[in-house]
Task: structure prediction
Amino acid sequence: MMEFSVNHPILFVMVGILIAVVLAQSIYFLVRALKRAKEKGIDQKTIKATISSAAIFTIAPAIAILVGVVALSKSLGVALPWLRLSVIGSITYETVAANNALTALGLGAGQTITDPSVFVTVLWVMTLGISIGIILVPFVTKKIQGGMNKIGMKDKKWGEIFNNAMFLGMISAFLGYVFCDVGLVLKGDTSGLVPVCVMAVSAVVMAICGICAKKFKIRWLTDYALPLSLISGMAMAIPFTNWLG
Amino acid sequence: MNDKKNLSYLDSVHRDGRVWGIILCVLLLAFPLVVGLVFNAIPEWSALAKGLFATLPMYWAVGIIEIFTYVPMLGAGGTYLSFVTGNISNLKLPCAVDAMERAEVKPSSEEGEIISTIAIAVSSIVTTFIIILGVILIIPITPVLESPVLKPAFDMILPALFGGLAVVFISKNAKLSIAPIILMLVLFICVPALNASTVGIMVPVGVLFTVGVARFMYKKGML
Result:
């Protein structure tokens, strides 16, 4: 029997294997989509812009995910958070799931786990809690998508409006979330205004990029407008938080 | 391999997506089991039950809603990848939506399917490598990532993301965007239970409401 530690090398080996399989899946689908793009005659410039823009855009959110790995590593070691945040997980979910399990065990979030059965308990809670997506997606995706495609086929104009409405509905929910704490201002707490200001900065940068790209015909500006607005918003969050608390 | 040629691209994405999905599902569920076997440890049953009771109802409900909401936006390939690699609303979805918008393609078309898959695959690969790099360098970078100076920047990632994305979609659909934005602002400001952890439930509410409004305006000839 092996002596347990949250950072035991064998945990890293197992997690490494799992992540390699996940990586292989991404590469497999990427290669297939690139091949198909060529067959369909999609402009290679569009493909290149899609790749580089997606890569640049991903850097800041990925570093934020890394912050989650570091935070969870205090009690769970590095291997488990590495897996949980590379595969299915998201920062908001994993922290809650881990805390639920640790609370049920009567432990605090900052203590390092030394008992393997405690570790396995936390591991099961985190794994089963997030697993619904990965269990259902292989079986329902085709049906949902088939239903969606019918909408576009019957009435092309409505199909287009439907798509825009769907994205707008999703975006409006997140916009609402940005304003969820502004009510605190009435109690003298201005911290709820920070996300609103950050969103405004990001929106203004995006608008400026869009206008400049159109006026001066700068193609790359359109491709990197989203990462630029994201980074500007995140950077301005620092002075806004200092100012508004 | 004759039937392979007769399959459409989309059908083959579904077929391969299922195979990969099932393999990964089995591997992921096997992981806690194998860790238990290796260290000869069984879970503490009562704590496991309590932990699952606190976690499962909420996250399975949100998870099921998310599948129905995000599949139409991500496309087939994008869905099979996103639901394995996670971080959908804070990374994969905005990335795919932005890519399709710039390429001027819809998620329900084959071109949209291809662009979305490429964007999400690249994003997943880059994320995986950044996290690997971070895990290797965890000791030197921990003080930087945990520095109180940078904390607000990481906390504000969602507002910084959706501000930019909102400009693109609102400017193109100004008339349609009024009703959902007013509804969501009123709901989030007036209902204290709506916050970072419940925004996932409000996404389908926003989508259904906006599609309903769009249908009404379309029928009345307002769009």
